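Notes to self, TRAP-type C4-dicarboxylate transport system substrate-binding protein:
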Amino acid sequence: MKIRKSTNTTSIVTAASMIVLLGFSSATMASGEDHNFTMATESGDRESAQGKAIARVAELVEEESEGRITINVFYQDEIGGPQELFDQLVRGNIDLMLTWPHTSYDERLGVLHLPYLSLGWDEALETYGRDGWLSEIIEPIFSDIGLEYLGPFPEGFGGIATRDTYATSYDEAREEGIKVRSQPIFPLPQTVEAMGFQAVPIDWSEVYTSIQTGVVDGDSSNVIFWDYTYFNDLLDYFVHSKHNFSFYSFLMNQDAWQALDEEDRGIIADAVDIVVNEQFENARKEDEKWIQKAQEEGMEYIVPSDEEMAGWIERVRDEVWNEAEESLGQEVMDAVRANATEPQE
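result:
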């Protein structure tokens, strides 16, 4: 099947200069040569799941190559923010990245963020897995951008985290006038709006201050880990709306990938596969662990009723999926409608 954001220039130049000065950008490679790559995660410090994942990939690659291939790893904000890192990955100034798929280069990647694409863990793993039907759609899109898709890194279903008040339906969200931060990635703001909230696109580094100063009343579309870990002192409620399945992608600059011989590609791909498989086994338990911990620390965890969920699913799919077809194209959306999970009657 053929399936066919604003950036801070100064910080990008700074990040790129640092990378080049440190000598981490890749050169032309031949079989048997030593290689030194750089890999970054846009979110998470070295103790986070994302941080541990990139460190483990680097460790596995170095071990399997007997020290011939090394990967320098960088954690959240160490060499730039999410969008600038993605820009540098596309340009080849960094080689690998664990990132939320950004739609700034091709809005068709918005298919990865379509709301209510999967409605439960089993369906989500079938959809977003390395061999899932969604991979057939996104691999050629990443290739058009100049990136090699190596695999997914699932977290779980996102929700709406707020202070003072909460909503479990479109009407409640409208009545309360709740403003929530949304990732500036299509169609996440549109999804939150269709749920009845006021969506305010804000970069991750500015979320805490935005909640603290009242610019927004909370956060949206993240698993509870992020809202508990970073904003627990500000937020009171987490409504598990499950409107999006939160996951990251392992990506490699395509020029760097194609310059490798088959053996070295296999070493990197196998290392990512090991980490991806481990995460698929652990993601659900990890999410449940943080749900429990957040409740123990005073955050109220709320699951909408079946009726409330059905109302959101119907409204959001109708509004956002139809709007998405203009950006994603009919062929992509036909594949989505043919494969997406149908709500239980």
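- The longest helix spans residues 262-296.
- The chain has two domains: 9-114+121-155+247-285, 159-244+291-339.
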